[in-house]
Amino acid sequence: MVQYNFKKITVVPNGKDFVDIILSRTQRQTPTVVHKGYAISRLRQFYMRKVKYTQQNFHEKLSTIIEEFPRLDDIHPFYGDLLHVLYNKDHYKLALGQINTARNLISKIAKDYVKLLKYGDSLYRCKSLKVAALGRMCTVIKRIGPSLAYLEQIRQHMARLPSIDPNTRTILICGYPNVGKSSFMNKITRAEVDVQPYAFTTKSLFVGHTDYKYLRYQVIDTPGILDRPFEDRNIIEMCSITALAHLRAAVLFFLDISGSCGYSIAQQAALFHSIKSLFMNKPLIIVCNKTDLQPLDGISEEDRKLVMEMKAEALKTVIGQGGEPANEEGVLLTMSTLTEDGVIVVKNAACERLLNQRVELKMKSKKINDCFNRFHVAMPKPRDQKERPPCIPQAVLEARAKQAAEKEQRKTEKDLEEENGGAGVYSANLRKHYILANDEWKEDIMPEILDGHNVYDFIDPDILLRVEELEREEGLRQAEDEDDDFEMDGQELSPEEQEALAEIRKKKSLLIQQHRMKKSTAESRPVVPRKFDTGRKFTTERMGRQLSALGLDPSAAIDRARSRSRGWKRGRSVDGREGADGDAMDIDGNRSSKKLRLRSTSRSRSRSRPPNEVVPGEGLKDSAQKVKAIKLAEKSVKKRNKNARRGEADRVIPTLKPKHLFSGKRSIGKTQRR
């Protein structure tokens, strides 16, 4: 687990912003209204509170800065030296020391001015002391402005550092620039390091992760190192030197045997010998890269001798029994990141060497004895000399044999494909599993398009059943027609009936034509009231003439039509009769007398129904129950009316704190209105 997370360090404001933040908070969090008529003790307390509050805020802010920045002496030496390389630890400590000094000065200033404020004799004197105290505090902060800006730059740079765990399993990649370190890292991890055909593409440490035997390994890509004195190396090279010196990791020294990086094998060997002291007690592997351009067997004798010397030095760094070099396997490996030949072999060899070394170191530590004391390996003892072979039921053996036979007999499509030429040659026959009445039909060619139509649209698997149903239904219809003697053609009608039928059909066709004409001109035709509609055809006069022509009395029909169109009139009598002869009741005799009585009875204001009267159909037993129900209804809506709700569904939430009541400073006096 990563122990250092520099991304959580709080932002460091510059001097001006620092002062604005603190004074703004003091103005907002402390009282601001004071009068000269107050008692002198109250005035002193007012200004002492401001001075103490300002000092407290300065102290908290500065303490946060000092505590969150790492102390170089307390963190891992790798991070300590890396920060020293990047920022110069002397300047770093000096900046933090100035912050600490400023914090102590502000505390001393506040203490002195609080002591003076205790003896302030007037409002003007107390205010002047407060202004002087805050001014001196702000002056101290402005003086450390450069240190604050320097620490903010360091914070931003530290936030961009990779999260490296110095104690986990680590693989370190080093070598000359442009020898293929970043390409190898991109192959074995999911990191995306920039790869370019020029030197020093990688300017800082890059971290990736890979897995081997269900364990996570940390892979670090270091910038290229040049063979020159230690004092002449720049910051980029020193990052690599720091990682090699302090991280307990397996080291992969990359060697470009093709010379395409711009450096010969002799120069790379000189770099190896100059930094070989950093490889002590670390698993070291010499990786000959770019074998696609130049194989290892094709180099010259001098270069081969240099490579063998490097291999001998790598064997000396391996921790073996009694200090003797271990086996030579996995010390000198070849690969090509372009063709990916040998990349996985190099990764597995480095992970295996590192894992073996870590296990061996743990076995030699003192803690292993405490672990062994907790282990106990129990070996069962035989109770007698009788052999007890495993007993498998016969049914199980037969089932296994049957399953194996079926597996051998049945050939899958994969087996058929391999027997008939493999993928791209063999084509699976999808028709051999068709279920048809005749197996010879499987290979018949079925047309998809016939006469411009999709054949599948006309295929119905249940066509025979449907034909049988249609034939059965047709037989039933024919039997019904034979039993039915009624004919609709009108051949058995009399001549008068046939004339009437022809007249009715002619009239019906005319009405249909008129209706269609009206419907087509409905949008452009204006709406005319019936009173002024001169083109109205269906009237009572016309109906009377037609009924008279047929020899019928039209009076009853006309009266009925008028009564229906004009509605019911309220009669004077209680029983709803217009006269003694009872003609009104003859018009609609099926209407119940109770409904007629309710409709015809007039009701004046003196006879209006009281609120507690029970109307049939309300579902109430008596007037007392209705009065109680009315009271309960009024009580249930009382709270809703009090809250100014429009109804049960009104869920409007008004403004809980109106702006005009809760904004601004509270003045002297009562605040009950709030």
Quick structural summary:
The protein is mainly alpha-helical. The chain has helices spanning 15-29, 40-68, 77-87, 89-117, 123-143, 145-159, 181-188, 235-246, 265-274, 301-317, 343-364, 367-372, 394-409, 413-419, 463-483, 495-520, 540-549, 555-566, 583-587, 593-600, 623-636, 638-642, 659-662; strands at residues 170-175, 206-212, 215-221, 250-256, 284-289, 332-334, 449-450, 453-454.
Description:
The protein is mainly alpha-helical. The protein contains 23 helices and eight strands. The chain has a six-stranded mixed β-sheet, sandwiched between helices. A two-stranded antiparallel ribbon has the order 7-8. β2 (206-212) and β3 form a beta hairpin. α1 packs across α2 (40-68), α2 packs antiparallel against α4 (89-117) and α4 (89-117) runs antiparallel to α5 (123-143). The protein is flat. Mean pLDDT is 82; it is low at 319-323, 573-592 and 598-604.
Question: What is the strand and helix layout of this fold?
Answer:
Blueprint: H1 15-29, H2 40-68, H3 77-87, H4 89-117, H5 123-143, H6 145-159, E1 170-175, H7 181-188, E2 206-212, E3 215-221, H8 235-246, E4 250-256, H9 265-274, E5 284-289, H10 301-317, E6 332-334, H11 343-364, H12 367-372, H13 394-409, H14 413-419, E7 449-450, E8 453-454, H15 463-483, H16 495-520, H17 540-549, H18 555-566, H19 583-587, H20 593-600, H21 623-636, H22 638-642, H23 659-662
Parallel strand pairs: 1-3, 1-4, 4-5, 5-6
Antiparallel strand pairs: 2-3, 7-8
Helix pairs in contact: 1-2, 1-5, 2-4, 2-5, 3-4, 3-8, 4-5, 4-6, 9-10, 17-18
